[in-house]
Amino acid sequence: MTLLPKDRPVPVPVSPSFLWGAATSPHQVEGNNTASDLWALENAPGSPLPDRSGDACDSYHRWREDLDLVCDLGLNAYRFGIEWARVEPVPGHLSRAALAHYRRMIEGCLERGLTPVVTLHHFTSPAWFRHGGGWTGPDGIQRFTDYVRAVRPILDGVPWVCTINEPNMLAMVAARLRHDAPDLVAGALPPPDQGLADALVAAHHAARAELADLDGTASGWTVANQTFQALPGAEAVTEEWAWSRENQFLDAARADDFIGVQAYTRVVIGPDGPVPTDPAARRTQTGWEFYPEALEYAVRHTAGRIPVPILVTENGIATADDGERREYTQRALAGLGRAVADGVDVRGYLHWSLLDNYEWGSWAHTFGLVAVDRQTFRRTVKPSAHWYSDVARSSRLPDDR
């Protein structure tokens, strides 16, 4: 296993333009995303998902309050998404009200001095898109391109646009669902559906072409970095695993303006594939190994693979213990500091997530810096958020002590 350097100077100062922020996605926080494919799955008879998103965090109406929370914490950036199913609930018919809503959110960020980082597709699609064959359907890529063209006019003043969130995860989950593949080691999924992977790459490149002449806007996509680590003798197997599940998606971003790195845990690979996590290892609520060093591995691996700036668009932990959240984040940021000190071009860190939100079928996994009462929607800032606020205000990546 590759060892990371531990003798780098920390805390590490960062540029005044470094983004310190938090992230959300529309379906997970907005509520009542009724035209989406996931809403249909949640509410289908016999749905395999244990929980429904329902009103979620009611952020569709409470977005101003959420922006104020980000601002009050001294952060300077907020990542959120535009929901395609709201913008185009029926094929070919745009909701001007939805477009105006998201434009107000962008303006709300700018008015508060927050840098908006906008995601155009964060896992969910309109139900009609899925029914028509989705990304690999006869007009799937064109449908997405048309949506991006419709959204383009409201992106004025947005410096960072993520086209598609975690395309590798989309393609791997599709493969598991299509082939009824068994559950594997936490964090390890079957090889992606390659046809879907190719379609997502094409859709991303088409979206970037639509955004190319937007003045001052950088575009890229985000990848779920899985921190594949090889045991002795398993280097070739690890390279095979990493190529299909991660590296091909990084390579597709070689000409992008930036790449979004998203890291949470690791996958250790032996000669026969993923090795089960030690039963004695600490785990998060999701069952993943508690491994904050994943972030440092991910940014170093990405920087070594493609020559584009890195924006950490997600990193965090699902835990009910807020002290553990602080420990995880402090160690993750210390590792990021070591990478930055070694010259890795990292432009910002966006914590996942701002709010305890709907985690794709479950309310049990709490990633948020801010708790949300499920009945009243009252927001309560956690101590870890105040700690993160102090770090951001210091403009230094902390050490891990």
From TrEMBL:
<keyword id="KW-0326">Glycosidase</keyword>
<dbReference type="InterPro" id="IPR017853">
    <property type="entry name" value="GH"/>
</dbReference>
<dbReference type="InterPro" id="IPR001360">
    <property type="entry name" value="Glyco_hydro_1"/>
</dbReference>
<dbReference type="Pfam" id="PF00232">
    <property type="entry name" value="Glyco_hydro_1"/>
</dbReference>
<comment type="similarity">
    <text>Belongs to the glycosyl hydrolase 1 family.</text>
</comment>
<protein>
    <submittedName>
        <fullName>Family 1 glycosylhydrolase</fullName>
    </submittedName>
</protein>
<keyword id="KW-0378">Hydrolase</keyword>
